Amino acid sequence: MCRNIRVLYHFDPPTTEAEIRDAALQYVRKVSGLREPSAADAPAFERAVAEIAQSTGRLLAALTARTAVRTREHEREKARLRGLRRAVPSAASLAPPRRR
Q1: Strand pairing category for 11-12 and 70-71
Q2: Phi, psi angles (nearest 5°) of residue 12
Q3: CB–CB of 52/27 below 8 Å?
Q4: Phi then psi for 68, rounded to 5 degrees?
Q5: Coil, helix or strand for 70?
Q6: Tell me: the pLDDT tens digits for 3-60?
Q7: What distance in Å separates the CA atoms of residue 20 and residue 6, rounded to the nearest whole number?
Q8: Please, which residues bridge with residue 11 across strands?
Q9: 84 CB neighbour count, 10 Å cutoff
Q10: Taking 70 as the threshold, does the pLDDT of residue 88 lie above it?
Q11: Predicted local distance difference test score (pLDDT) of residue 1
């Protein structure tokens, strides 16, 4: 249904309102189990997205950084390397099954 939730805090350049809204939409989709709400549910769905985006923006503004600023390029590279590690089969998975 949805991609993984991503870190939005402490980036250079700073996280945009569009990125915050996209994360809120992703969260509401995951929690509700709906990719697209029905016409009857659309107002509640959009209200939830707006409220979560607003709360997330306030949270990000209030946090105090204790680590180095993240860059999107570095985070993309870390994700790429994680994907490569998942794609390469481990030695244990290549071994023939053991008989008992």
Answers
A1: parallel
A2: -125, 115
A3: yes
A4: -65, 150
A5: strand
A6: 667 778 887 888 899 999 999 999 999 999 999 999 999 999 999 999 999 999 999 9
A7: 10
A8: 70
A9: 9
A10: yes
A11: 46
